Amino acid sequence: MSEPSQISLNNALSPMMEEFLYFNDYAMTMLLMIWLLVMTTLLTISTTKLYDISSNNANHLEFMWTLLPIMVLMFIALPSMRTLYLLEDQNPPHLTIKTLGHQWYWSYEYSDYENLSFDSYMIKEQDLTNGAPRLLEVDNRMAIPMKSTVRLLVSAEDVLHSWTLPTLGIKTDAVPGRLNQLIFTTMRPGVFYGQCSEICGTNHSFMPITAESMPMKQFENWITTLMN
C-alpha cells in the first residue's frame, strides 16, 4: 500500500511486477541520459563562441542525428518486447477464482471448490479497527496461496468495472457478458489493496479490492473454515 510522501512505485509482490519495475527504471535512465545530452548541448551552444561552418552541410551529422534516435528506440523496444512476452508466457494455473463486479462491491467464487463464494463489501469508516486503512478494507478478503499460479476470471453484472491490484502489476476491465483472464503468482505473504479503476457510478470510490497472500497450509485451513 502506498504511504504518505511516497515517490516511488510499490514493492513488487509478483515476478511480473518486478519486471515492470525493472523496465520502468531502465526507461527512466534512458530518458535521463537523453535529457542530460540535450541540456549539455544547449548549454554549450549558448555559452561558447566557437562555430564550425563546415558542419552546416555535413552528411555525417545528418546521418548521426537520424541514427541516434533509432538506436534509442531499439534500446527501449527490445526490453519492452521481452516483458510483453513474459506477460503472456504463464504456467498452467493451480487455482481458478472468478470475480464479478457489482454496483458497488465485488463477489468471488472459488470454482475449484464446491459452493465456495462470497461477497466483499467495503467496511464503513465507523466500523474500522485500529490501523485498518480507510476506504480500502473489506469484510471478506480474497485469499490466495503464496507461490502458486492463480487464474482470475473477471466479469461484471451491471456496468463496466476494473479489477486492479498495483502490487501484483495486474489490471483488467470487468465487462458484462465477457470474461477477462489474469494469471499471476504471489511471492510473499501479506495483505494488499487495490480499487476499481473504471468510473462505474455514484459509489465508484467505495468498492475496494483486498487480497491476502498466505502460505498453502494456511490457505487450506481458510478454505476448510469457509466450507464448514
TrEMBL record:
It comes from Phrynocephalus mystaceus. This is Cytochrome c oxidase subunit 2. The keyword Translocase applies. Keywords: Copper, Electron transport, Magnesium, Membrane, Metal-binding, Mitochondrion, Mitochondrion inner membrane, Respiratory chain, Translocase, Transmembrane, Transmembrane helix, Transport. The chain crosses the membrane at residues 21-43, 63-81. The keyword Coiled coil does not apply. Signal peptide: none annotated. Residues 1-91 form the Cytochrome oxidase subunit II transmembrane region profile domain. It is a multi-pass membrane protein. It holds the Pfam family COX2. It catalyses: 4 Fe(II)-[cytochrome c] + O2 + 8 H(+)(in) = 4 Fe(III)-[cytochrome c] + 2 H2O + 4 H(+)(out). It is found in: Mitochondrion inner membrane. Its cofactor is Cu cation. Component of the cytochrome c oxidase, the last enzyme in the mitochondrial electron transport chain which drives oxidative phosphorylation. The respiratory chain contains 3 multisubunit complexes succinate dehydrogenase (complex II, CII), ubiquinol-cytochrome c oxidoreductase (cytochrome b-c1 complex, complex III, CIII) and cytochrome c oxidase (complex IV, CIV), that cooperate to transfer electrons derived from NADH and succinate to molecular oxygen, creating an electrochemical gradient over the inner membrane that drives transmembrane transport and the ATP synthase. NCBIfam families: CoxB. GO terms for molecular function: copper ion binding; cytochrome-c oxidase activity; oxidoreductase activity. GO terms for cellular component: mitochondrial inner membrane. Residues 92-225 form the Cytochrome oxidase subunit II copper A binding domain. Belongs to the cytochrome c oxidase subunit 2 family. GO terms for biological process: ATP synthesis coupled electron transport. Its main location: mitochondrion. Binds a copper A center.
